[in-house]
Write a structure and sequence with these properties.
Elements: H1 4-18, E1 31-36, E2 39-45, H2 54-62, E3 70-73, H3 87-93, E4 98-101, H4 113-120, E5 124-127, H5 131-137, H6 139-147, E6 151-158, E7 163-165, H7 177-188, E8 192-196, H8 197-203, E9 219-223, H9 234-237, E10 244-248, H10 254-262, E11 266-269, H11 280-289, E12 294-297, H12 301-309, E13 315-320, E14 330-331, E15 347-355, E16 358-365
Parallel strand pairs: 3-4, 4-5, 6-12, 6-13, 8-9, 8-12, 9-10, 10-11
Antiparallel strand pairs: 1-2, 1-3, 7-14, 13-16, 15-16
């Protein structure tokens, strides 16, 4: 029977699992807490690179105290043999008496088999504890498994009137230092940062996480149909230190392909849309097939518009500064199809707060 203590320990498992966000793809970010006699005897979360799994680490910490204990896991324990034995098998071998999981793993290799393996061995299994919170944490993994593409979050930093640069192209900085620090923290929780070729050429960004003491870096993905970005750019010069992936069209010049591959970048060939740009849906599908679960898009306007028009944006991180740039400024979004109000992409407000002198809002897809 599910009680208040179950919710409390599961919440801790979720907090532990969140530590792996951006570091464990293609695996889910899972947390595990092992409790014996009301006392925590082991805890773990999915390690960088996806292994060892959370259950393995928690069991190792608990040792003999696992026998007769309850394990709280934020996702159904795996049941298949891969690089490591199944976590469900490890829980049985450790003598765990009860497993509480947040929800079933939709991965076809698991999909209820982990719970069934536990029950067949006489382990009591309870599911559905903090399921909504767990699904939000694992949204990227769930998206890759069930939709074949990573979860995509779009970040916009705009003036009050929705501009991202002045009429002359000046954009550094519209928002303040505290807002930019939050952006870096968001980058750190995603597998990849995505920008278009125009933004990469105009800003020559590094797209790395800085000033947070974070050792892990998300890979950098550039949407560039013709591979127009120069290898001499900041991204090209650092491609061997922090991975760079280039999503390009079938007609990208061979010389540019060879130059980027020589620089250490990974090329991701994609289909083109009717306008001759990289097709947004095909790009997302290919990133999902490569294992990515969480992508953080930082523009520019045309790429953001194409992702919105294709219904690929799962969440919006909107930073609004208290200044106006006027109609001559560069808009945050490029042209969108002629949606009616009823058909236009809609989002629901999830959170809002002041960040320094700016306003931060988090919006989720759907009404």
């Amino acid at each position: 029977m599910i009680g208040a203590a179950d919710a409390r320990f599961m919440r801790l498992a979720l907090v532990l699992g969140a530590r792996g966000l951006g570091q464990v793809w293609p695996n889910p970010a899972v947390g595990c807490v092992i409790v014996a006699g009301g006392r925590i005897v082991g805890r773990g979360f999915t390690a960088q690179g996806g292994r060892p799994h959370a259950e393995t680490q928690a069991l190792a910490q608990a040792g003999a105290a696992s026998r007769g204990a309850t394990a709280y896991v934020s996702l159904e324990p795996c049941s298949h043999h891969g690089a490591t034995p199944p976590c469900a098998e490890a829980l049985v071998a450790a003598g765990v008496a009860r497993v509480v999981s947040a929800h079933e793993d939709p991965d076809p290799r698991v999909a209820g088999r982990g719970h069934a393996m536990l029950r067949a061995a006489g382990v009591a299994v309870e599911t559905g504890v903090l399921e909504r919170e767990a699904r939000a944490l694992q949204a990227g993994f769930l998206s890759r498994v069930t939709r074949g593409r990573p979860m995509l979050a779009l970040k916009l930093a705009t003036s009050l009137d929705g501009r991202i640069a002045t009429a002359t192209g000046e954009s550094r900085w519209i928002t303040g230092s505290q807002a930019r620090r939050v952006v870096h923290a968001l980058r750190a929780t995603h597998d990849a940062v995505l920008v278009g070729a125009g933004t990469a050429r105009a800003d020559d960004p590094m797209l790395t996480v800085r000033d947070l003491g974070v050792a892990h870096q998300p890979l950098r993905v550039i949407c560039d149909s013709r591979l127009s970005l120069q290898v001499a750019s900041a991204l090209g010069r650092s491609a061997r230190e922090v991975p760079v992936w280039l999503c390009h069209g079938p007609d990208a010049p061979e010389a540019a392909r060879a130059a980027w591959e020589a620089a250490g970048a990974r090329l991701v060939p994609c289909a083109l849309d009717a306008a001759g740009r990289v097709d947004a849906a095909d790009m997302q599908a290919r990133l999902g097939a490569a294992g990515l679960t969480r992508v953080f898009c930082e523009g520019g306007g045309q790429l953001a518009a194409s992702l919105l028009a294709a219904g690929l944006v799962d969440g919006l991180h909107l930073f609004t500064a208290g200044l106006a740039l006027g109609a001559g400024g560069l808009p945050a979004l490029g042209d969108l199809p002629g949606f009616s109000l009823s058909a236009a992409p809609r989002f629901r407000l999830d959170a809002a707060r002041a960040v320094g002198g700016d306003l931060y809002q988090h919006w989720l897809a759907g009404t």
